[in-house]
Every structure is written in structure tokens, then in C-alpha cells.
Amino acid sequence: xxxxxxxxxxxxxxxxxxxxxxxxxxxxxxxxxxxxxxxxxxxxxxxxxxxxxxxxxxxxxxxxxxxxxxxxxxxxxxxxxxxxxxxxxxxxxxxxxxxxxxxxxxxxxxxxxxxxxxxxxxxxxxxxxxxxxxxxxxxxxxxxxxxxxxxxxxxxxxxxxxxxxxxxxxxxxxxxxxxxxxxxxxxxxxxxxxxxxxxxxxxxxxxxxxxxxxxxxxxxxxxxxxxxxxxxxxxxxxxxxxxxxxxxxxxxxxxxxxxxxxxxxxxxxxxxxxxxxxxxxxxxxxxxxxxxxxxxxxxxxxxxxxxxxxxxxxxxxxxxxxxxxxxxxxxxxxxxxxxxxxxxxxxxxxxxxxxxxxxxxxxxxxxxxxxxxxxxxxxxxxxxxxxxxxxxxxxxxxxxxxxxxxxxxxxxxxxxxxxxxxxxxxxxxxxxxxxxxxxxxxxxxxxxxxxxxxxxxxxxxxxxxxxxxxxxxxxxxxxxxxxxxxxxxxxxxxxxxxxxxxxxxxxxxxxxxxxxxxxxxxxxxxxxxxxxxxxxxxxxxxxxxxxxxxxxxxxxxxxxxxxxxxxxxxxxxxxxxxxxxxxxxxxxxxxxxxxxxxxxxxxxxxxxxxxxxxxxxxxxxxxxxxxxxxxxxxxxxxxxxxxxxxxxxxxxxxxxxxxxxxxxxxxxxxxxxxxxxxxxxxxxxxxxxxxxxxxxxxxxxxxxxxxxxxxxxxxxxxxxxxxxxxxxxxxxxxxxxxxxxxxxxxxxxxxxxxxxxxxxxxxxxxxxxxxxxxxxxxxxxxxxxxxxxxxxxxxxxxxxxxxxxxxxxxxxxxxxxxxxxxxxxxxxxxxxxxxxxxxxxxxxxxxxxxxxxxxxxxxxxxxxxxxxxxxxxxxxxxxxxxxxxxxxxxxxxxxxxxxxxxxxxxxxxxxxxxxxxxxxxxxxxxxxxxxxxxxxxxxxxxxxxxxxxxxxxxxxxxxxxxxxxxxxxxxxxxxxxxxxxxxxxxxxxxxxxxxxxxxxxxxxxxx
Length: 1007
What we know:
Blueprint: H1 3-13, H2 24-29, H3 31-43, H4 50-59, H5 61-72, E1 76-78, E2 98-100, H6 102-106, H7 112-115, E3 118-124, E4 127-133, H8 134-150, E5 158-162, H9 167-178, E6 182-186, H10 192-199, E7 206-209, H11 219-228, E8 234-237, E9 251-253, E10 267-268, E11 272-278, E12 286-291, H12 292-306, E13 314-317, H13 324-330, E14 338-342, H14 350-358, E15 363-366, H15 368-376, E16 393-396, H16 403-412, E17 418-420, E18 422-424, E19 429-433, E20 447-448, E21 454-457, E22 467-472, E23 482-483, H17 490-496, E24 504-512, E25 518-523, E26 528-530, E27 533-535, H18 537-544, E28 550-558, E29 568-575, H19 583-596, E30 605-608, H20 622-630, H21 644-660, H22 673-686, H23 704-718, H24 726-729, H25 733-741, E31 751-755, E32 758-766, H26 777-781, E33 787-792, H27 807-821, E34 827-832, H28 834-848, E35 853-859, H29 870-903, H30 916-931, E36 937-948, H31 957-963, E37 964-975, H32 984-996
Parallel strand pairs: 3-14, 5-6, 5-7, 7-8, 8-9, 13-14, 13-15, 15-16, 16-17, 29-30, 32-33, 32-34, 34-35, 35-36, 36-37
Antiparallel strand pairs: 1-2, 2-10, 3-4, 11-12, 12-23, 18-19, 19-20, 21-22, 22-24, 24-25, 26-27, 28-29, 31-33
Helix pairs in contact: 4-5, 8-9, 20-21, 22-23, 22-25, 27-28
């Protein structure tokens, strides 16, 4: 059934039985009820329910905003009149005589109790990384603001950030607001082209980055960014890291900014605060300027009245710094609530739900894509007994939340209200959202936003229907101040007021139900929403313009046939004369989009068509093509110059899907049966088709996590087990097929190249218990060195190999491989966990043979209890009870998750699926560790000790201090597993300094 028809059918079939009904006690205690009572006392008028309050808020919007300002408790000065200068949505201005500070209202600390109130908790996939109270956050914000002042940043200057979603991003945003600068952020996953297209329009004065030398913040990438932003005065790095040379602007560490007592300057209500980017169907991304007062007032209204958020609550919204929901969640600090941040990909549903449970989150925000991911994975928080007793509301946005997903939440999460909210970057807020006093009906947003006159404008083409363009007919405070660089306001007018004069046109399709709730029906323009990520076609068109083979192109969104995802991106191309669309060109297109935009911009489908549908004026009609792929007749069919093109588009995409079911038909004629079977496997695992024989796995969307299911299917189909790291030197179907044709099991070397470089004096790294060097690839990528880096693969992972359970035997077999590659020293060796003991034995053998070991590093190499002397065992045992409280709060949940992962067959460290060979290797490791008794070593060793020791394990530092004559101990932040995962960039920095012999003060901690 076509998507729009399905929505309409669902709306028609919806019963009047709500999915959730708030209790009388909850309604009486809500802040919305308190506000209604407040209004009654001020206007001497009865307000019986939420609908009457909404009616008041739009019929007399000035009175409503005046009342809410008084109710909100915001700190401000000046005169609150006039409330609004005009009835014209396009030109109206709110509270022109009022001054306030965004930062002051978010970080109110009038008492000691205020300063100790929790402000934020920051997480990544491995757990908590930072927790700040309001006093601590304010101190860091003030220091950052002082640094910006030192750099000469004035009110109205632009500060831009490529930032991870952590505490540092919050500090940068609020610090910029403190000095009156306009702040704009993006995530590190975005390509250089996309960043420059956005930030280049702003002519920023300061660039803020999370780090340097970590993924997303590579040195060459940041150098290209600074060279492209000619207006920059400085770069500020939030994390302490190695500062490289050769940059065109000075680089400062935020930690070097002196502490200062924060001055709280108040700015006009409409002083610019944020610039957010929204992508249209034509032209560069629009730079939407949002005012401080309008943003704060609208957000506080949404958090307090619609979300019932208050002091003591916790809001966790899964977002990134590139999405307006980051700004939206940030403003929740003004309610006194704590915000919970998450940085990193979501690979397992447990990644987010465990945070909701452990942090006792009261409001959890996510997306339909994540909820669908949970459903497909068979993940049920309720069935698993996850504690969600404090969860008071579940918010969803980023795409349409369909009826069946409401039912899934009810069954698998519990009796919690599902609030489907929708708005956008354009207003940095919501137009439809939740309501603590109203019931929840499947497929519907509970109500329209108070104070916003939201309507459905039903066009003549849709006469008789209830679905129309979403408009706002009266002024509202969070209407943007304009578009940056659009002094005359022409682009601003075209974007939001030209289609329906006199009202704000948002670009969505909406249906208002008789009960006052709303159903969203997607975008009314060509902006795509793929898996909850909004993608502007203009970015794709600009990149494709560099392809001479492509004459014209169009991207549209389509529901994915028979798949678990909500939608996919379809790229339609008209080929230039003499060119054809072949697998090699498809691969080049995908690679270019991934490198210059982001992986999210890679289309699932690429087909060639005779012509693009255009209107009589020559304008491309993405809407018509979208309707054609839905199976609907285009509403603007009479406006098209070539309506016959729509049938051809539908036919070509259908033929593409048919060929994808039999991928051998699209392979080159030289492809053999082996290549055909591999292609089927790759297309199934990666979810794209067709894939050419020479397409690089990583450049077409492959990740290290996908190597496990890929090689698992290869093993099932061909009876051959390959190391997961095979993908590093056989990243194409063609090269992988060549390896599979060689059936000699003994050909597999125990060395895997993790990072290319000088092979005359390489660096060798031994893994821990899991034995698979692919898990060490991130660490290798973070080492700034010209030397090649090799990982040592454990014996036993391949057919015909037996796992070894003695450290000395493991060391001997690896030494043979090392000497085959590097016959003479000096040698550089690293070892993680059990691998530390292995490289120590390798080094001992080399030294005894007269060879020089230039560098030997042990990364949290833990030894058996029996290696301790009796007095050391007693001392360590006495320390254990001090760690037991931590076991309850940190280790126990982590170990439970590890147990669940083990039951699912997932390795706790690498996250990679394990076959029987891997299980045997992992089981042999503890036996080797238990039997190992290290001897004294005469050379120099650098020991990287995890700063967080397990609650039930001893500290091996004492043993290494006793056995190594020249030992340097450096404390690496995090617990054992974090060192090569979430904290790998910090460990990589420390290793780089050690390898270069330039360890800075503070990094070398001699114990």
C-alpha cells in the first residue's frame, strides 16, 4: 500500500481507545495545570481543559506569551511591553525592550544547593565519561568565555564547532552565548565539503574542535578545514592533545584558558544565539539565525508545559551536535533538570536503554528508526527486566512514528506516554508535541504547540481531503531572525512566505484530527528524511556536478520495499551522450558522496532514466517523482511538462529491484561463479546493490563491525574461515575471490597490516585474550608515526590451527613471524592485556640473542594473583573492599551486559561475532595468563596502567616494578576495555608521545 494511503487508512481505522491515559493525580500535579490555574487568576477567566488553553493561546497570543513569561521565572530586565510589534508573521518582533542572558537562565546558581544540582552526565558506548554539577559546569563555561574574550571575540562574532556530543560541546555552546557570540555546531562525521559549505558562509572567527588526531579530527582534515575558513583567528581544542605544526592559524587548548569569575551580561531579547543549517532542494544550505530570547522562551514552554520537565528530572535525547535536538536538549537546563548526553554509534539497542535504566531517566527521546531497530532485534526492555520505573515519557522525532510502533512501545516498554514531536531546524522547536494532561492515540501527536497557530492548509489539488501544508498563521517568538547573509530578506521570504503569503509555511504535510491532535505525513518539498537524518539534495547535486558522465540528477525518498528501515534514498541520473551507468561509475558516485558529504548521503538505489520530471517553467519536481515511486498519481500532474517521465521512473526503479534479487545479472560478463556468490553476500550484508567487483568495502559503507557477518556467511557458503582482518588487504570482491581460490590453509600469516608505512622498522602490536588484531586497528590509526604497524593474530583462529595456552609458546610463534618480516633490530613492540606478557617474552628472547629492543610498551598487562609476593597479595586484598561499592554501580552492570553479549555470541571487547575457533582462542587465553610467571627483564619498559582498576582484580603494577629494571608507569584514562575502545584516542596520544620520546609534563606519571 502506498505510504500516504497507508497513513490515511490508519487514521480512518483508528479507534477512540487511547494507548495511554494520564491519571487524575498526574493531571492535577502537572505544570500545565499549574499554568492554567495561574492564567485563571490573572485574567479572571475559567480554563476547563487543554483545548481551551490552546484556543486562548492563539486567539490572544500576546496575552499568552506575557503570562508565560511571568510564570516561567526567567531572569530578565527592561520592559516586557510591547509583547509583539506586529500581527504580520514575517516581520513581527517579540519583546523588543527586554534583555536577558541565555547562559544565566540555564545555569542559575543562587545558592550552594543550586550549584550542587546535577547538570549533565556524558556517556559513550562503554559507559560514563564525565559528570558535572551546575557549579562545575558554570566554572568551565566561564573559563571558556574568558578564553574567547582573550581571543578578541565580540558580541555578534561567529564561533563554529566540529564537536562530539559530550560535556565539551555544552561548554563551548554556553561559553559562546556568555560573550554574545553566535554559535553553530556540526558533528565530526560530516565531510569537509559539507562543513565548508555550511561554515564558509558564516565567516567564523573561532573554530572549536573536540580533539586533534582522533577519528573525525585527523590532522590533514583539520588543516583543510582551517585553510578553507579564511576568516579564522584561532582554533580551540577542548581535549588535551598533541598540537601539530603547520596550521595557518594559532591553536589553543581550552584547558589553558585561565579560570575567571563569570560576568553575566544581558543582551536584547532578539540578540542572535544560534545558527542552524537547513538544506533545501536548491542552492547552498540555509543559515538560519535564531534569537536568544525566542529560542529560550519557546524551549522552556515546550519543556515545562508540554514535557512537564522540572528540577530533579533527567532528559536524555539521542542526538548529535549537527541536529537541532542538541540545542533543544541544552535549553532543558533552564528547568533545573539534568541532561544526559550520548556520543557514538548505536550498534545494539542496549546501548541506549541501559543508560535510561542506570541513570533513571524520566524523559527519553529517540527516533522511529531506533524503535524499529529494537523491534527487529527482538529486544524488549520489559521482558529483560530493565528498570524503567522513573521513565515518565518517551519522545520520538526525526521521522513519522507509525501506529504499530506505539503498540510496540506499549507491549515492550510499558504504560508510558509516547510523545511524537515534530518541528524543525527552521524554528529550532516543535509545532506538534506531547501533553501531560491528554491521552495518547496511536499514530498521533497529542496536541499543537501552545501559542503557535498551527493549521493544515489544504490546497485545491487536495480539495476534500484533510491533509494539507503545515502553516503557522500568527507570529511566534522562535520564528528565526532571518538567514545569515540575506540582508534584504529575499531568501527568507522565498523560503517561508512566498508559497502562502501572510503565514509561515513549514514544508511538512499535516492532518489535524477532530480531537485536536495531529498526524504528520512527511515533507512537502524535496528534503529527504533517511533513517531520521535530514538530507538536502542540493549537497548531492553539487558533488555530482563534477561527474562529466552525468547530465542531470534527482534524489527522492522511497519506502524501502520489504525492508526493516522506514525509507531509502533513490538517485535518478540522466546520462550524458556516449556514457552509461555501470557498476564502476556507481562505485565512484558512492565513494564521492561518502568522502565529500557523509555516509548518510550514499543512495541505496542508483538508476539511469531518460529525463527528469520538470514543470512548464523548467523546475525539477521531486514531489512528482516521489509520488510516482509511492504508486500515487502526482497532485501537480497538469503542471508537468513531461508527465510521461513518471511512469518510466517507476518502471526503472522496479526493474532495478528485480535485478537486485538476482545480482548475477548485473555483474560483468567475466565474473565467475565465485565472484557472483561473493557479490550476493556483500549485497546482503551491506544492504546495497549492485556492488562492483572492484568496489572498496570501506568506501561503499562497510565498517569493521560488518566484517563479522560477512566472513561468517563466507564460511557457511564456501567452508572457509578467514581472519576478520583479511578485509584490510582484500577489501574488494575481486581480491577476496583471489584469496579464496588459494586453498592452502598454511598461507595465512600471523601478521596483519593495520596501518601502512615504513616497513624497515615496523611496530608490532599483540592483542589481548580475543586474539584478533582487527580490534587493534583503531589504536593503530591513532598512532602518529611513519612506521608500518602490524597486528599479531592468535594461532587457532583458522582451520588446521591449534590455540596455544602458554605465553612462552605464543611468543615463540609470533617471534618467528616478526623475524621473517624484520630480520634485524631495533624492534618496537606493544601488547594489550595478555598481549603485554607475549611481547615481554618476545623482547626477552630478542635481547638474549643480542638484538636491540628500541621500544617495549605494555598496555594494562594484568598478571595472575600468584605473581604477587605474599605481602603484595595481602596489601591488594585489603584494598579490594574499597572498590566494592564501585562494583555495584559500575562493574556489576557491565558484567551483566557482558554475560548477555556472551549468550548472544558477541565478544565483550571487540563486539564481533565469534565462531567456534574464536571461542577456543578466547578460552585458551585465561589458561595462559594463569600459568604465566614472568621473569626479570633488563631493559626499558613503558607500562600504561588503566586509571580505573576492576573492583575484583588486583593491580599488577607492583609486579612489573619489581621485575623490570627501567620501568616507566603512565596512567591511561579509563578502565581496561576502554583503553582500546572509547578512550583509544587518549591512549594513542600517550603512545605517540612515548614512541617519539617527547612525553609532556602531566602525561608521565612515575609511581
